[in-house]
Amino acid sequence: MAENRFSSGSSEEQAMDPSLNPVSEEVTIDSRNKMFVDMFKEFLHTKPNPYNQLVKSSSEGEAVVIDIGMLSKFSSELADFLVAKPDEMFLISQEAINQVDLPAPVKARFSGLDDMVNIRDLRSSHIGRFSCVEGVVRRASEIRPQIVKTEWECEDCGDLITQPVKFGYVSKPFQCNCGCRRFKQTGKKMIDTRMISIEEPFELTEGEKPSQVNVLLTDDLVSPANRRMSDPGNRIKLHGILRETPKGKLFSAKLDFFLDANHLEPTEAEWRTIEITKKDEEEIKSMAKDPKIYDKLVDSLAPSLYGLREIKEAIILQLFGGLPRTLADRTNFRGDIHILCIGDPASGKSQLLKLTPEIVPRGRYVSGKGVTAAGLTASVIKDELMGGWVLEAGAMVLANKGLLSIDEFEKMSNDDQVAMHEAMEQGSISIAKASIVATLPAKTAILAGGNPKFSRFDAYKSISEQIDIPETLLSRFDLKFILKDIPDSERDKKVVDHILESRKGGAEGKPEIEYDMIRKYIAYAKMHCKPELTDEAGKVLRNFYTRTRKKAEGGNAPVPITLRQFEALMRLSEASAKIQLSPKVRRVDTQRAIKLMKHSLQQMGFDPATGQIDIDKSEGGTSYTERTRIRVIMDIIEEMSKTSKSIKIEDIEKAAKKEGIETTDEVAEVIDKLKREGMLFEPKVGTVQKV
Ligand SMILES: [Zn+2]
Hints:
The chain is of the alpha/beta class. About 35% of the residues lie in helices and about 20% in strands. The chain is elongated and about 110 Å long. The structure holds zinc ion (ZN). The site of zinc ion has 7 residues, from loops.
């Protein structure tokens, strides 16, 4: 019976899942409830009341939303009764609404419950009660009709008998009052339904795996106008009855639950939900006046990590973000800044990737190979429990309006790679698979980290050869960084001193500005500062762009700076202006953006000063002949490593001779250099091995 349920309403005899049965236990209106009906009618006529407006504007299928706070003010008895016996209260409110004069039938829905239950705290004591939960839609099924009632005619006396759908099954009446047991089906009542799965919002989970709960949406909650609200990626608040459903087999003693939703509303949890007091505001304003604020923020990011100045600057700008804009021709430009860092293991990359999403609301950290079936973007998968094809949000959708940190970016699936193009540029993800066609929101800043193609950077190969990410996707990143772990005794000493210092609990380990304050600062800047690009600032950016392009014209490589980088420069400048709450993008902001852009271009092997792909830069400043020699020997070692891990230096010398490197000194020199740079090691005298 597990198959097919929910997937189609076409067959009347089809088994349906008990969990999806929206019909409550049969409840009748007794004398006490009759009193409640009268009270409710009276409530409907008190003012102000949404019902009063609805009387005028009601059209078919519309619902009247009753505020529980207002109901409680009118009668706490009614409100308490709703929470304790919602099924009965629905009947009472419906009866009351039916008795007042309305042009069309209207359904009662309730919202505004004070106490919200965390999904992880849902317990058996909540079953049957009216509850309120909030979460982000992770999965959503298609919208399908479902039978809730059937009508049968007795073949002997012609009486009509209504049968509710119980435990998901459509059944015939057992016997008519006339004693006849033969019936003919004459009608059925259907409603539209959708199953969704919501997970706890970010601020509750604190890095733990978020709890999830299934939710059944019916009727006008899935109307075309409301459907989008329950698409994956949206954050919603739900009121409804928690119902139990047997786990697995029908008569299993183990129970699971789902929320039979009565009311659904979108909620936004973004920067604006961060509480900023008057005192905070004053502090933020005075911080913004500090000419050193930019440096202080940058220094506060992972202070225990030595150096990495430019990438830390880039991340701080990313947190503030640029301004999204829509041109008159409806072209959209994103405000999100995307950053990529490709680095050797232990280059500090992973720490930054893990730390950054913790600073922002809706921040998430995933690993490219470890993401869910939905991947980074979205996918359509088969979920028998929810009934057929479901749309599942990937990490980028779930982090919509926040930041997504992706480690091992190069390991993402092919499907994701295609969808990332749209997501990173348009801020949305379109998906069309099976019968599902949808566009999901993904306005997410990406901080991606990747590994070099051969696990470590090879200083004698060009950078572009060593990045396993397609060029089209690379171009979506505003800034790119290469983090190499090259032994350098001077620097190494500083790094170690720095670590020792921060371990001692000295000033170096503690951020100058606490993350809590940084979060408030960013939230405030995002809400109150929309810096305008001045003519002067625009000119600086334009000059840099056109001059760099011009230099690259006669260069030895495809033009590395395009309009995409120009837009990136604008975003970075705006972010910089926001840091000082400046209403205008100033010269200093554009210069900061240009400085980072130049650094990023250089890291990728392009020299903005000459317009050349600068091999000296990307290959470590060795002479051409030496480089050729190193290249030849690296190739030999590469080739030999295929058959044996450790390689005799003798054999390398022989092979090198054939390639024109005559003296053993020359070979020894190169091997020494490679050892110093951590690319080779000597497992035993006379042999070398690749790291
Ligand atoms: Zn009969």
